């Protein structure tokens, strides 16, 4: 399946200057190319209303809590998810090993202009006039080819840890997606195993990608941006973020409140609603706009696992949701087509397929 997801990206090659990251360690100041006019958004004073829900997966009401979080927030953090902290730490430490390599070494694994995997800057870069304080490494299933270039005699550890991490994430993503569908009430208790025709995809090969993100410490964080505002092209994204104590990090936008930090909770994973779930749920579960700020003292890492149906499957508002009399808000698109629309028009993609 990774090959078809790769193919979907191959149709939209980037220019080389849209791939090569800066050598962040060599910079005493933020270069003009990376300066963003950050409005100093005030964070909301009402802390209670502005804390992203943390959901215990072993809670008997986990389904209801997840449904509410997806509807009200488009994001939640999950604990008791069954993935041992040691696995998260191992993956983070392998990611750190990769990003700590000298730049000339990392460039050996540079993403090809029409490629989907390897080292490079954020895919959303061409939509913005400034560059981000960010470098990334994308894995689709096996990391072998790139890891073998980076560490010809020592790639096994990286590959094993990333393989294992993706396996664990796939199981969790499937479990969460089933709970999310259940929360949409699209099948009754008795029908639990009898999923709708359009939701059989998780038994096939879902389209998945693991995105390692690195945000080096920044000499002037108020003038830089780690990742510009975007929504994810996925059903859900499961994110592990390194536990840094101060400043910067992931923020989500909540209508009526503004930008809200998603503070790291040790061992918790952040779950985002992506565009494809937004379409399936006919807009009831909103794909959440998010961005990343950087900080002066810490090299922050995150690992985002994107979980989607196979690229040739069609995504459209689910029949059972429409049975309640709601008109469909979006036309049917294949995952591949939606990736293509998003590659051309980023934040307008959902409105382009609106009916
Ligand atoms: O680093 C983060 O917290 C978020 C990363 C992200 O949004 C992404 O990879 O799409
Ligand atoms: Fe994202």
Automatic annotation (TrEMBL):
Pfam families for this protein: 2OG-FeII_Oxy (PF03171), DIOX_N (PF14226)
- Tell me if Cytoplasm is a UniProt keyword of this record: no
Q: Which UniProt keywords apply?
A: Iron, Metal-binding, Oxidoreductase
Q: Which residues form the Fe2OG dioxygenase domain?
A: 205-309
Keyword Oxidoreductase recorded: yes
Q: Which domain of life is it from?
A: Eukaryota
The entry assigns this protein to a family as follows: Belongs to the iron/ascorbate-dependent oxidoreductase family.
Give the protein's recorded name: Fe2OG dioxygenase domain-containing protein
Q: What is the lineage of its organism?
A: Eukaryota, Viridiplantae, Streptophyta, Embryophyta, Tracheophyta
């Amino acid at each position: 399946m990774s090959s078809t997801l790769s193919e979907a990206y191959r149709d939209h090659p980037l220019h080389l200057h849209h791939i090569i990251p800066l050598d962040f360690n060599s910079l005493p100041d933020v270069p003009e190319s990376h300066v963003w006019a950050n409005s100093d958004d005030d964070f909301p004073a009402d802390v209670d209303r502005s804390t992203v829900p943390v959901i215990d997966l072993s809670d008997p009401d986990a389904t209801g809590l997840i449904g509410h979080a997806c509807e009200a927030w488009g994001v939640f953090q999950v604990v008791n998810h069954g993935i041992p902290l040691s696995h998260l730490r191992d993956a983070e430490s392998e990611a750190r090993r990769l990003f700590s390599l000298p730049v000339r070494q990392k460039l050996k694994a540079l993403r090809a202009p029409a490629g989907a995997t390897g080292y490079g800057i954020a895919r959303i870069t061409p939509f913005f006039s400034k560059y981000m304080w960010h470098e990334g490494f994308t894995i689709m299933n096996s990391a072998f080819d790139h890891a073998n270039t980076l560490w010809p005699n020592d790639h096994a550890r990286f590959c094993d840890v990333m393989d294992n991490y993706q396996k664990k994430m796939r199981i969790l993503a499937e479990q969460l997606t089933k709970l999310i569908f259940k929360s949409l009430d699209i099948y009754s208790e008795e029908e639990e195993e009898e999923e709708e025709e359009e939701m059989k995809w998780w038994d096939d090969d879902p389209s998945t990608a693991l995105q390692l993100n690195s945000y080096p410490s920044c000499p002037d964080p108020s003038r830089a941006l780690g990742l510009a505002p975007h929504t994810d092209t996925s059903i859900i994204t499961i994110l592990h973020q390194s536990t840094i104590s101060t400043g910067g990090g992931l923020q989500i936008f909540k209508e009526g409140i503004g930008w809200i930090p998603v503070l790291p909770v040790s061992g918790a994973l952040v779950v985002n609603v992506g565009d494809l779930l937004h379409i399936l749920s006919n807009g009831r579960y909103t794909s959440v706009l998010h961005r990343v700020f950087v900080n002066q003292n810490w090299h922050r890492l995150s690992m985002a696992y994107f979980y989607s149906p196979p690229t040739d499957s069609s995504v459209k508002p689910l029949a059972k949701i429409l049975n309640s009399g709601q008109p469909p808000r979006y036309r049917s698109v294949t995952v591949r087509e939606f990736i293509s629309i998003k590659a051309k028009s980023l934040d307008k993609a959902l409105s382009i397929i609106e009916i």
